[in-house]
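User: Please fill in residues for this 93-position structure.
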């Protein structure tokens, strides 16, 4: 799946690639047993957490996801909605 199939321009797709690792890293941190909240973390710790997520997304998970996977798990429409919403928000900023 690429940006064209979701009517997302390449520059928007690049912005999303930068946004998702932080969203996922923050979610993972908040679900962890850490005593620190996300906003209390050092910038270097956040950078490391985002880097680990980027590596996982780029090297492992994204290569395995197919349109059939998304359809099988009823996620295709939801993901399209996410991309559309995020793309709209990026236009505002």
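Assistant: Residues filled in for all 93 positions:
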């Amino acid at each position: 799946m690429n940006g064209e199939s979701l009517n997302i321009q390449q520059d928007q797709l690049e912005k999303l690639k930068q946004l998702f690792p932080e969203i996922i890293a923050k979610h993972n941190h908040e679900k962890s047993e850490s005593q620190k909240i996300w906003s209390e973390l050092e910038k270097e710790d956040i950078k490391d957490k985002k880097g680990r997520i980027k590596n996982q997304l780029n090297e492992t998970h994204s290569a395995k996801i197919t349109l059939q996977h998304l359809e099988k798990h009823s996620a295709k429409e939801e993901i399209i909605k996410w991309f559309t919403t995020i793309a709209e928000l990026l236009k505002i900023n």
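For context: The chain has two domains: 20-62, 67-93.
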